[in-house]
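Objective 1.3, modelling of assemblies. Example input:
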Amino acid sequence: MVNTSVTLSGIELSNPVIPASGTFGYGYEFAEIYDINILGSFSFKGTTREPRFGNPPPRIAETASGMLNAVGLQNPGIDKVISEELPRLRKVFRKPVVANISGFSIDEYAECCERIDKEDCVGLIEVNISCPNVHCGGMSFGTSPESAAQVTRAVKAVTTKPVYMKLSPNVTDIAAIARACEEAGADGISLINTLMGMRIDLRRRAPVIRNVTGGLSGPAVFPVALRMVWQVYEAVKIPIIGMGGVSGAEDIIEMMLAGASAVEVGAANLVDPLASKKIVEALPAVCERLHIENLSDIIGGAHHG
Amino acid sequence: MKIVTFKTASNEKIARNTYEMVLSGDTSGISPGQFVNIRLDGYYLRRPISVCDYGPGTLTIIYKVVGGGTQYMSSLRPGAELDTLTGLGNGYDTKISGERPLLIGGGAGVPPMYALAKRLISEGKRPAVILGFNSADEIFYEDRFKALGLETYVTTADGSCGIPGFVTDAMDLEYTYFYTCGPEPMLKAVYQKSTTSGQFSFEERMGCGFGACMGCTCATKYGNKRICRDGPVLTKEEIIW
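Predicted structure (tokens):
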């Protein structure tokens, strides 16, 4: 009998599989086709202080083994998320959920995290620091150790639940940014967000995506994500949620061997709405085949010496 | 939404760059104006295609070859299996059509009008149909609509067949309501010319096709709507034009 449970900052998950923010909405669409309570948890749609429409369409493009998105954090804003979405979410998902929070200023991060921290259904807070900092010339908070640490400190000061900082891969030294978050008090690191990319429509001779660039996800990014999880594991002691192009149970094992304590599944949910379910169901047999009795034993298991 | 593995029964060219594919499999829960989302080997995202016709165990779709994915689809032989999401989107509301609704389809927007016409006929209504194409060699399904006993007008932009011009050049008819699907400039022109209320079916680049990714959202008078889930059909009253 394989034990697939893992623990993230004291929160026990029955398995490490967590659908990633922005690919699972608030869970309703998936709850129509399977019981999503089989998942370890899921990370709900990125939430900001104000309602956001996001970027103008088209905001999706296909790539080799992946896709680009420039949705731009469309969400109904923290007020409606708390008053409307979370009560509905509660009806389809009974486990602690991951609250994904975004912001365009330190104040916004702190305010949203302080409010979401009071919601019983929230297990941990995942802070997306890939958004442009409006007070700092539009540079993303996640691209410098200093601003990443600033957000971490501001959020930790107003919350009681575990705070995981979600890092952007579009940086020169992700380990330095992870270390800065750890030193500023982060309880964990979650990575990677999407890789910036673009496509051009040959007939129109113009970018496919109206926003010009979009975030690349899907199997194409898996090796890059795995490498970054590996580097961050070597740099910090706090737990890591790994993600990026995960599409099968073997990818979960690989991410955990690189250092992830839990693993998010993103784009795969969009292509196959049963992807996360299939991964959860395949995991015990894959573990057995690989002689894994306790899945949590293999975290970081590929780092020798 | 349902996840269905269809088997290709036939896949034939019916006009320039245009193919009709008949699929065998579970069609329960499908309604006119909805779409299906098909997974193709070698392509990461599914291809959303409107429902043209359906019956118990049989689904007909019509698609235009516009890129690698649809080119690959056109090469599929009878027997090929397709992993498909069905029952996607809201579909047309036929309750408010009145006795004589007008159906206006342009190019790749023609197919959904066929299942809709059959539904309206089954409800005892007498729809009239306008089908718009660029030129004579792109025309398809004119005979199929006529075979339903419907008053059918064809327009071609280059004047090579039927009424020269656009679908709006054939719209001077008496009608109680309208339904339309086609390229956005056509939809806008229909919006301007129409004298009654009606429903518009939209297209947008989609990630998932079932409401999870928010990739295809558009703004309406009644808030943001996901074309794939809250659409693809929007009413004239909610569109911001």
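Residues 6-298 of chain A form a domain with the TIM Barrel fold (CATH 3.20.20.70).
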